[in-house]
Amino acid sequence: MGPRPWRVLGDERLQDCKVFDVHRTMVESPTTGEAHPFYRIASPAWVNVVALTPDEELVMVRQYRQGLGAVTLEIPGGLVDPGESPGEAGARELLEETGYRPERMASLGSISPNPALFTNRCHMQVAEGCVRVAEIQNSATEETVVELLPLDRLQETVRRGLIDHALVVAALYAFELWRAGDD
């Protein structure tokens, strides 16, 4: 018999941080019956988009990330708004952050960003046939610059650590698996 779920005794929202809430949840161990506090981050679902142009280039974004205090190279992505599907959110984020619109979108699945802390899922989408149709539409807290990365340089770029956002690397891996299934 493996681990069993713990019984929730109570939950308290400690902080509303706009894009996530911090909660303290009291849970009871199924083994000892003792109560323990756990802290979790409740956030809406996220979406990451692996966007490919007709010329086999990945549409990437460079942006400043406050948590790291550095500029990173990533794929477009963001929060899934209420009422949006992951595909709709992915197409919206792609257009806003890059000005590119896809010919078609497909799901690459979803993953848990960190089940020890986060309550949400990160959906991964592939956008094919992406063409630039608009200017970048960043919000006041974003500044993105588009870079096109030839698909044949993707593995080298990840190996060299030039793309090191864990959820981006996970989406790129899901994309590689998806492509291998198409061959």
What does this structure look like?
This protein is an alpha+beta fold and 183 residues long. The chain folds into two domains: 7-42, no CATH class; 46-182, Alpha-Beta Complex (Nucleoside Triphosphate Pyrophosphohydrolase), CATH 3.90.79.10. It contains three helices and twelve strands; from the N terminus they run βββββββαβββββαα. A four-stranded mixed sheet has the order 7-4-10-9, sandwiched between helices. The model has no long low-confidence stretch (mean pLDDT 95).
How far is it from the N-terminal to the C-terminal residue, by CA? Answer: 40 Å
CATH class of the largest domain: Alpha Beta
**Oligomerization status of the protein chains:** single chain
- Secondary structure class reads alpha+beta
Main sheet summary: 4 strands, mixed
What spatial form do the alpha-carbon principal axes imply?
elongated
CATH topology of the largest domain: Nucleoside Triphosphate Pyrophosphohydrolase
Q: Let me know the CATH homologous superfamily of the largest domain.
A: Nucleoside Triphosphate Pyrophosphohydrolase
User: Which parts are unreliable, with pLDDT below 50 for 5 consecutive residues or more?
Assistant: none
Number of domains: 2
* Helical content band: 10-25%
**Roughly what fraction of the amino acids lie in strands?**
35-45%
Q: Could you tell me the mean pLDDT?
A: 95
Give the helix tally: 3
The H-and-E topology, N to C, reads as EEEEEEEHEEEEEHH
Radius of gyration: 19 Å
Strand order of the largest sheet: 7-4-10-9
Q: What would CATH call the architecture of the largest domain?
A: Alpha-Beta Complex
Number of distinct beta strands: 12
